[in-house]
Task: inverse folding
């Protein structure tokens, strides 16, 4: 495959993953926002995506083919999980709780997002290495 064709193929993989990830994020956050606070829907998709990113990273280590690793990384890691998670929305949700002087919720959201994300990524990674 030529370099130009390879670039188009990479763009296609990322696009397919990103569209799918954005749709899943929208459905999850739509359902959670109807029940809980908006910021916790963002928290949920970010925690889910960090778990699966950790799992993906560990599983990619088992694949010998460099092409397969790259394609899965583009489709699932960069495309799907990159689109599923949303750092910018997390920051905006955090700022909103701070501007509304909901300090306990702000601190809880901040700490649970950071430490929960690290925990979930490491759990996914460990699960993939079993």
Result:
């Amino acid at each position: 495959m030529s370099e130009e064709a390879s670039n188009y193929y990479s763009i296609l993989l990322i696009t397919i993953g990103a569209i799918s990830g954005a749709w899943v994020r929208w459905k999850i956050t739509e359902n959670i926002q109807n029940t809980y606070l908006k910021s916790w829907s963002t928290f949920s998709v970010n925690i889910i995506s960090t778990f699966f990113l950790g799992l993906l990273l560990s599983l990619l280590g088992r694949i010998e083919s460099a092409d397969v690793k790259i394609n899965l990384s583009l489709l699932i890691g960069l495309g799907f999980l990159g689109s599923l998670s949303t750092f910018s929305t997390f920051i905006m949700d955090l700022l909103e709780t701070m501007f509304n002087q909901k300090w306990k919720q702000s601190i809880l959201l901040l700490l649970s997002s950071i430490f929960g994300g690290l925990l979930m990524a490491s759990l996914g990674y460990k699960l993939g290495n079993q």
